[in-house]
């Protein structure tokens, strides 16, 4: 039996939290692995232990720099005490002197994104620019220090290979259709009321907390175009965040996006729901007509799979990652073109035949992603590293 220690101290929102929530139940079902999960105190209450899963909650520093130092100087001692066969580091940064073979999950495209660095400079967010440059250097060193690095898509793996000059393995993230579509969970009443108030409008959904690289501003400009071109039909952009800086994780400033909504007089068209509980999220997808993402940097994009699994036509920015994940199930547009995004939405919304074809292709494509397959490939990789280490 393989003993796997998962370092998930950085999992607090977004992809990291989604990963832990989905991988852990799969590991708990297997009889060939024993898992120790290391998380922050804030997540301890929502992680269930079992005969094969042990949870360790650590009060690590909240800042990225503090957590990095904690992992380099304190985590090796904990690893020796736990005695795992393999360390799985989920937060982009490796333990540079790991006592055991280490698999690094690399899933942050910003360190490689010229669009992101240009964006933060234009916004004058120089602190974030410098912070990302420093973290990028550490992430590149981490890839070189780990025994093996895993990326969630082949497109991103290819970028990492060129960037770090080291081999990187692609293991697609998974998706659990049955768990995601759990009918027992319901939307909070205030969310149901807000969604119900948009009845009769063309509902365009975007699932994300606010950040720069999801390119909210291009989507907002597209809504202004749709409002004019589709009049008198109502258009609503439904967001699972609020365009208020303090209401979103990280240091991203949402003021520019909020000001753009006011400038374009879209106060009625942009519906800011705030965070929606994940177990009930499928109800929101099914309430909408189109899913749109203008992101200019991405490594996998779970919401695209969720949208396809919910039968929602997908309009995505033309990134290699998006084409890899959605294939022929989506329509694509140049990532900074609000005009082209609006045109794709109009094209799809006015063609029932195209909507039906996209739904069918999307549902089929979503079935290609499985957390069970992801965990199986991950454990095979871990077992190979253990065998090499024993030799």
Task: Provide a descriptive summary of the structure in words.
The protein is α/β, with parallel strands linked by helices and 391 residues long. The protein folds into two domains: 2-174 and 370-390, Glycogen Phosphorylase B (Rossmann fold), CATH 3.40.50.2000; 177-366, Rossmann fold. The chain has helices at residues 14-28, 64-73, 75-82, 114-123, 126-145, 154-164, 177-180, 189-196, 216-229, 255-263, 281-287, 302-309, 320-326, 338-349, 352-366, 371-390; strands at residues 2-7, 33-40, 53-58, 86-89, 102-105, 148-151, 169-170, 202-206, 235-239, 270-272, 290-293, 314-317, 330-333. Strands 3-2-1-4-5-6-7 form a seven-stranded parallel beta sheet. α9 (216-229) crosses α14. The mean pLDDT is 92.
Note the topology:
Blueprint: E1 2-7, H1 14-28, E2 33-40, E3 53-58, H2 64-73, H3 75-82, E4 86-89, E5 102-105, H4 114-123, H5 126-145, E6 148-151, H6 154-164, E7 169-170, H7 177-180, H8 189-196, E8 202-206, H9 216-229, E9 235-239, H10 255-263, E10 270-272, H11 281-287, E11 290-293, H12 302-309, E12 314-317, H13 320-326, E13 330-333, H14 338-349, H15 352-366, H16 371-390
Helix pairs in contact: 1-16, 4-5, 9-10, 9-14, 12-15
Summarize the structure.
The protein has 391 residues and is an alpha/beta fold.
